Description:
Elements: E1 2-7, E2 12-19, E3 24-32, H1 37-52, E4 59-65, H2 71-88, E5 92-95, H3 97-103, H4 107-110, E6 114-120, E7 126-131, E8 142-144, H5 149-156, E9 162-166, H6 169-176, E10 183-187, H7 191-203, H8 206-211
Parallel strand pairs: 1-4, 4-5, 6-9, 9-10
Antiparallel strand pairs: 1-2, 2-3, 6-7, 7-8
Amino acid sequence: MITLGLDTATSACAVALWDAASGRTLAVRAEMMQRGLAEKLVPMVQETMAEACIGFADLSRIGVTVGPGTFTGLRVGLAAARGFALAANCPLVGVTTLEAAAHGLDSDSRAGHTLLAAIESRRDDLFLQPFTADLTPLGEPADVLPADLPAYAAAHLPAGPLLIVGDAAARTAQALGIWKGTLVIRETAGAAEALATARIAAMQDGAGIAARIADPFYLRPPDVTLPKQG
């Protein structure tokens, strides 16, 4: 079963192909970018699939990040993913950027740490969600201002080793300040999130696919207002 994973909701345009049957990554491409996603994504998917020597008919499902993240990026990714799913005649699975960031870590990196997924909002605030080392969520996704981060950490993060992961990891660590325990910062660039999105999508059964609707997930109103229809 081959799954296509897409992430355009963070700071990168990223594509990954995962073969669940063999447990192999077939191809991954990622490029850090804030503009030009609509022009970049489709050619990147085509190049990635050509590298793996597969076509849309070979895909069993498609995973896409649904947010929280950049408004334009997640809309581009969702629109493209819906088109790809129609072309491949396969299920489309939504994955949050926060779980994609956490799941992008290997088990050795996660061991013994509380995880804090941190995603850029492109404004002052940070999108955060804590997880245990075995990827169990410790709380719901949250929109947190840097000044409020110490209080958020005191309420949601247990003492001990902490691993902050995501495209806002460095900024989150800076806002956190002094941490009583080992602090690891893992700044990401899209590839790990796209691959994790593909792997999460591949793991879903029928109920999981039905529950993971690929609709935008916002933690605050978007900065851009879409024109009214009609």
